[in-house]
Amino acid sequence: MPHARFMKPFCRMINIDREATDKLLKQEFLVLVMPYLHWETRKAYEDMLKVIDKVKQRSEPRSNHQGGKPKSLEIPDTTFQDDREQIQIDRKLIQKYLSGSSLHIRRTLDQSYYYTLADTRLRDRDKDQVVYRYTKQLRNNSEKTPDTSPLQSMQLEPLMLMVDQCWLWILDGDTLLTCFPQRWGQDVKSKDETDVFQSIFAYLEPQEHLNRIMCVQDLAFFIIDRCAGNVLNPSLTRGATSQFLEIFSKSIGALADKQTSRFRELMSQVGLEGGNLDDLFDVYPEFTLLDEIRDVIEELSMIENINTQQTEAMEELKDKRPDKYGNSRPTRRPRHLYAPVMYPVQLHSRSIGRRATVESLFKSAHQVLQLLDLKQKQANVSEARSARKFAEETEKQGQSILLFTVVTIFFLPMSTLASIFGLNAKQLNKGEMSLGIVFAYIFPISLLVFAASLYLGFKHRMLQTFSRPPQAGTAPKKPNRSLSFFRRMRRSNPKAEERGRDPQV
Question: Is-contact 91 53, C-beta < 8 A?
Fold first, then answer.
């Protein structure tokens, strides 16, 4: 996996122990390696992936060879044709050094954080980048605007956050060596405020700014600060699409606004007695918002991880002596030349400030998650309320059925006996029996059947009621207050107690 090639951040003194006449090779070097954030267009990133795929396919040995001879693994330079010379240079670099060499390619946020995952999975994850979704939506909106020209629409290419590496060596008091990659196919003549190389030279172009760099350590600190705050420092980027922390903030705000609207709809549905519970329990829109906010939180954690690595490298830089290499640093610097130059302590504090900014975005994202949890809680409350109403309706129906059953039990024996006595039978005196005698038979027999039916029907409930043992922890019955009052009176009046014991009284 090419994206798994990278150097972990560190800052230390390295001693090259070799026999050489060159004095430069016998001394210690200060080496610093740290990651930093950059960006790339989606189109350029896909072009780079195509080149990497073809190189990997040609470099893999094939099991089946025609004629028993393996095909040549050498990639001709005419494999890719493009009119832009810089893209040809970038492609040839990958073709030449990707296989069998330690070429470190540019990585996306997910590739830098999950560098052990397969490349196919990473590409699916890269399509969900917050910056990519935002810039793609921005381009779609611009295409719908009639005032937008085709050239302006082409300039609004969807962007992606990338992770590059800064390698820096301080060889001696006058020599500094550093390198960092550029964007795919970037024209060296085009101006890019986020390009570290261009931003450094653009700042040092005026003589006034150049005079502020008094020694090689000043230049090293300045380069480190520019790399660390490349896309996270709003003062270094002025374009609407290059304010990446602002993009995260706007994305979180848009998700919070959507969730607030959904929450208001939820409250309106809850307020209605006959509301549609299907809409209330439909969580698909919330799951969509949850997936987006999870992506935001995950990418913010990746950015925070990069800031942590930068902070660790700068903490190691604080322990190194800045005046290690000779007396190139002046003993006194003019007061107006102090501010622009970053020293290790200031670099470390600024890195902590960037981490605080990312953490504030974390809190905003988690607040949106709290709004999403309210939907689930409200759904649980509504479900419990519906269950309670259903239980109440069931209880009412049970009481109605019980009443109907009791009435039926009461009148069924009476109607049965009345129908029997209404028969013109010889045993019943041919229907000439008096009404009093008929009632004397009907009512006692009906009451007996009714009582027996009630006893058999409610026997278990009555047994449970009267044979229930006292519950543990119940308070004992309080004594009669009047009796306790008279007892206290008798104790407080011993003479009355003696008179009560005297049989003559």
Answer: no
Give 108's strand partners: 162
Determine which of 195-204, 212-221, 269-278, 441-450 has the lowest per-residue pLDDT on average. Answer: 269-278
Strand partners, 29: 14
The 3-state DSSP class for residue 476 equals: coil
476 found inside a domain: no
Check pLDDT > 70 for residue 494.
no
Tokens 């450094």 appear where? 200
Q: Is residue 489 part of a domain?
A: no
pLDDT tens-digit map of 365-379: 777 777 667 767 766
Q: Are 421 and 428 in contact (CB under 8 A)?
A: yes
Reference 77, options 92, 60, 66, 99; nearest CA is 92
- Percentages of the chain per state (helix, strand, coil), in multiples of 5: 60, 10, 30
Q: Which residue do the tokens 């049965």 mark?
A: 416
Q: How many CA atoms lie within 13 A of 434 on its CB side?
A: 3
Distance CA 162, CA 38 (A): 5
Predicted pLDDT of residue 348: 59
CB atoms within 10 A of CB 237: 22
262 in the same domain as 363:
yes
- Supply the Cα-derived Rg of the chain in whole angstroms: 44
Q: Is residue 417 a part of any domain in this protein?
A: yes
Q: To the nearest whole number, what is the mean pLDDT of the chain? A: 72
Q: How many domains does the chain have?
A: 2
pTM of the model: 0.64
Domain containing 260: what range?
Answer: 2-61+73-329+336-388
Q: Output 164 or 256, whichever has higher pLDDT.
A: 164
- Give the C-alpha separation, 410 to 453, whole Å: 9
- Does residue 503 lie within any of the structural domains? no
Q: Are residues 226 and 306 both part of a single domain?
A: yes
Task: Give yes or no: residues 426 and 344 share one domain.
Answer: no
Q: Which is higher by pLDDT, 341 or 99?
A: 99
Residues 162, 262: one domain? yes
* Residue owning tokens 């492609």: 91
Q: If DSSP codes are grouped into helix, strand and coil, which group holds residue 107? A: strand
Instruction: Please check whether residues 372 and 248 belong to one and the same domain.
Output: yes
pLDDT band at 415 (very low <50, low <70, confident <90, very high): confident
**Do 369 and 223 share a structural domain?**
yes
Are 191 and 225 in a shared domain? yes
- Same domain flag for 313 and 435: no
